[in-house]
Amino acid sequence: MKAGKIAIEALLGANDNEAERIVEGMDEGEVRRLWADWPGWAHAGQTEPEGPWRVWVMLAGRGFGKTRAGAEWVERFAQANPRASIALVAATADEARRVMIEGRSGLLSLPRLGEAPLWEPSRRRLEWPNGTVGFVYSGAHPGGLRGPEHHVAWCDELAKWRHPQESWDNLQLGLRCGERPRTLVTTTPRSIAALKAIIGEAGAERTGGGTADNPFVSAAAVEALERRLGGTRLGRQELEGELIEDVEGSLWPRDLIERCRVLRDGGSTGSPPPRDERSSYRRIVVGVDPPAGSDGDACGIVVCGLDADGVGYVLADLSASGLSPEGWARKVAAAAEAWRAQRVVAEANNGGRMVESVLKGAGLALPVRLVHASEGKSARAAPVAALFESKRAKFAGRFPALEDELTGLIWGGGYEGPGRSPDRADAMVWALTELMLGPPRGEPRIRSL
């Protein structure tokens, strides 16, 4: 091990010609052992923490070497624990395959002395010769993590997962095999509630660093990135691996959200209040941002109300993913009935009139207004953000997933929140725009006997 470390240090300090001479002076076995000596190649922040940690969070900038470190940790656990079960979780199953399994720093690309594991893409499983198996899961489908049991887990880019908290909770409930279940999280930081909660858990250890800390990233590449992003908030996050509470230029900074929060019975994310409280709102609207398909983005479903004083309230976030058009339409219809809504406002870009017909087919006996997204998401959201700044709009409870998306919407365009698209935020914007920024309307509500 010591000899290998000395050889690695010599290679790192050599120019190309000198490095070539060093390698040419070794036999084939020495070269293979050298490339496979991960402890010798690992730099600060990539090394497993000491002590009985339960969660290891490697929070680092792009190019730091998070993927390689995660793959090496999994490889070593698999080799040392025959017939073990490992969870491999990424933002999507496709990203797990492209990055964690088949990527240039993934599990199949690692330099190793023994036989490589067998990858079965159709079954989403990786099997080592000793019987240890790695199973691929997606942070976009938390239900897939409900039930399976594992010894350890590797979670990559958790800050990008569509359902980070629910997926994490289901994963942890299944980590109950062996004497010491553990989880490694490798991610570029984003200020989402789930990641901050994980870092604060008992038994959590944190390592990481910036792009420039990786000696194998070319100095020219680091210099170019520093010229482009150095000194900016985005650079601190993407290059230095710093967890920043607010995205620079956010339409909804965290302190604005907190100032606009009114808790109802300790806070609620979806349960309707008593009927007398519902009747205190002049109008209630359900905003809907339909998904492009059942395997795509979530269906944003957000209920908003306007009180007698003309103040708008976010009342419920009932968004859901993985549903068929009939499934999310029934969920919208149930929300409208439970909240005695007067109208549903749905974005029509994904499916046009199909949206209205599906909603009506689900038994929605109230007006459905189709709206078309002719502007970017941030441009549509800016007037609604101004309502919160002027205290004309508030949150009637806590809505963590929605709030994480809102903080990622940026003045002037762009989105830096969780997932690919702010579906919940879009639905809220449509609902409050209808209630407060459109023409006055007086329509009957759904009434239940």
Key traits:
single chain, 449 residues, alpha/beta, Rossmann fold, Nucleotidyltransferase, domain 5, 8-stranded mixed beta sheet, 6-stranded mixed beta sheet, 17 helices, disordered C terminus
Give the SSE map.
Blueprint: H1 2-12, H2 16-24, H3 28-35, H4 38-41, E1 55-60, H5 66-80, E2 85-90, H6 93-101, E3 118-120, E4 125-127, E5 133-138, E6 152-156, H7 164-174, E7 182-187, H8 193-199, E8 204-209, H9 219-229, H10 233-238, H11 254-259, H12 275-278, E9 281-289, E10 300-307, E11 312-317, H13 325-338, E12 343-347, H14 353-361, E13 368-371, H15 377-389, E14 393-395, H16 400-407, H17 423-437
Parallel strand pairs: 1-7, 1-8, 2-5, 2-6, 6-7, 9-12, 11-14, 12-13
Antiparallel strand pairs: 3-4, 4-5, 9-10, 10-11
Helix pairs in contact: 13-14, 15-17
Describe the 3D structure.
By secondary structure, the chain is an alpha/beta fold. The protein has 3 domains: 1-41, no CATH class; 42-238, P-loop containing nucleotide triphosphate hydrolases (Rossmann fold), CATH 3.40.50.300; 254-437, Nucleotidyltransferase, domain 5. 36% of the residues lie in helices and 17% in strands. It has helices at residues 2-12, 16-24, 28-35, 38-41, 66-80, 93-101, 164-174, 193-199, 219-229, 233-238, 254-259, 275-278, 325-338, 353-361, 377-389, 400-407, 423-437, and strands at residues 55-60, 85-90, 118-120, 125-127, 133-138, 152-156, 182-187, 204-209, 281-289, 300-307, 312-317, 343-347, 368-371, 393-395. The protein has an 8-stranded mixed sheet. The chain has a 6-stranded mixed sheet with strand order 13-12-9-10-11-14. Strand 6 (152-156), helix 7 (164-174) and strand 7 form a beta-alpha-beta unit.
